[in-house]
Amino acid sequence: MSVSFGGKYLPTKLELIRIRRSLQVAQNVYRILEDKRDILVRRLNELIEEAEGARRKLIEPLMKAYDALHESLLSMGPLRLQSIVANIPETVSVRAKSRTIIGINIPIVESDGGKIELTYGFADTSVSLDEAASMFRELVSIICKAAELENAIFRLADELKKTQRLLNALEHVVIPRYREAIKFISMRLDEREREDFVKLKHIKRRLELRGAGSYAS
User: Fold this and answer.
1) pLDDT of 2 strictly over 50
2) Does some domain include residue 192?
3) Is there a domain that residue 151 lies in?
4) Pick from 109, 112, 107: which is nearest to 144 by CA?
5) CATH number reported for the structural domain that contains residue 125 in this entry
6) Poorest-confidence range of 75-79, 80-84, 198-202, 213-217?
7) Is 7 within the bounds of a domain?
8) Per DSSP, what are the bridge partners of residue 101?
9) How many domains does the chain divide into?
10) Which tens digit of pLDDT belongs to each residue from 92-135?
11) Residue 131 and residue 66 in contact, taking contact as beta carbons nearer than 8 Å
């Protein structure tokens, strides 16, 4: 971009052409960013709605799972429960991938559950422990989806802020200064043309007077 934002512009036709081109580029970029902002807002609204749905699906089952866990804690005691939990092998694996939304990298969280093998006997455990383990296991995929949506919302919201800052800079700083520069240079060029016209007219008049004097002699 050819404009010096210090307020000093070269009053030349070449500079005027350059600034007009830069203004056109800035206006095109502004329109592109407006489209991007609109897409971001629409996608954010969709993700927020999805996230709210994921939360609704999560809250009630999660409360039931914690109730079952609390019941097993009361019936078995904390020491016995901790001993059993410590010996349970990992049965769920979580993988993180990624996708792009409008050029923004968004992580995707996927979970896979293997077959549950009991590591404790039924004699000294409660039914509520089995229920809690089963419910928590089923909730893993919903929790991963909710986390994925929340992360996507934060990333798109951050990109929306950056896009809006660029739009503000173009609208309130860059584009007005280009227009100011075009107006300034155009005025100076017009003044110069008027001055040149007056000079040429004066020279023409003097030549005409000189020609008339030579004819008279």
Assistant:
1) no
2) yes
3) yes
4) 109
5) 1.10.287.3240
6) 213-217
7) no
8) 104
9) 1
10) 677 778 888 778 888 887 777 555 555 555 556 677 877 887 78
11) no
